[in-house]
């Protein structure tokens, strides 16, 4: 697969299929991007497990850190990697040791390792590199458009809301328009 560009349909299918996400390299520091990603994704209905051995047992924004992927108490659908590219092969080794295997191996913005991607795909995992699931979810749901950012998604339909309060939109497919 070409990892320079992803079709919106591919990203949407990945984000729609997964329910459980392990974030490797998550931080308890509210100023770090991984903190915002784990908080955002958990608020969108995903079960998020922050993975950081230095924070194991600590609870932040209602999420309890685990030391490693094998410590996640349920099957993982997607592993999101917040580690430098040179650490990605070791994270993938840990992913490939899981049973059952996750469906998706995702690396964050600025994180790309083509050899690891090829290994993950050979093992049957979908791969997304150098992208942020928070940004992609916000872009595809239309949330990011509310702040004046061009989401490259055009629709005449109203976005589906996830609840009341703060603007939270869903990437779930919208049914036929009712009159």
TrEMBL record:
> What Pfam families does the annotation carry?
CoA_binding_2
Which residue ranges does the record assign to the CoA-binding domain? 15-111
**This protein's name:** CoA-binding protein
Taxonomy of the source species? Bacteria, Pseudomonadati, Pseudomonadota, Alphaproteobacteria, Hyphomicrobiales
């Amino acid at each position: 697969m070409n990892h320079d560009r992803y079709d919106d349909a591919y990203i949407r299918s990945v984000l729609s299929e997964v329910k459980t996400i392990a974030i490797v390299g998550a931080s308890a520091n509210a100023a770090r991007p991984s903190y915002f990603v784990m908080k955002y994704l958990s608020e969108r209905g995903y079960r998020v497990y922050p993975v950081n051995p230095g924070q194991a047992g600590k609870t932040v924004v209602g999420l309890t850190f685990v030391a490693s992927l094998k410590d996640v108490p349920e099957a993982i659908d997607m592993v999101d990697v917040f580690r430098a590219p040179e650490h990605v092969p070791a994270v993938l080794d840990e992913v490939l040791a899981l049973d059952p295997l996750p469906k998706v191996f995702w690396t964050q913005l600025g994180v790309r390792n083509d050899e690891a991607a090829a290994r993950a795909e050979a093992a049957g995992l979908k791969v997304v590199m150098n992208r942020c699931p928070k940004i992609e979810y916000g872009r595809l749901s239309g949330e990011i458009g509310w702040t004046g950012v061009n989401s490259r998604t055009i629709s005449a339909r109203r976005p589906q809301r996830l609840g009341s309060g703060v603007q939270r939109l869903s990437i779930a497919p919208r049914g036929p328009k009712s009159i």
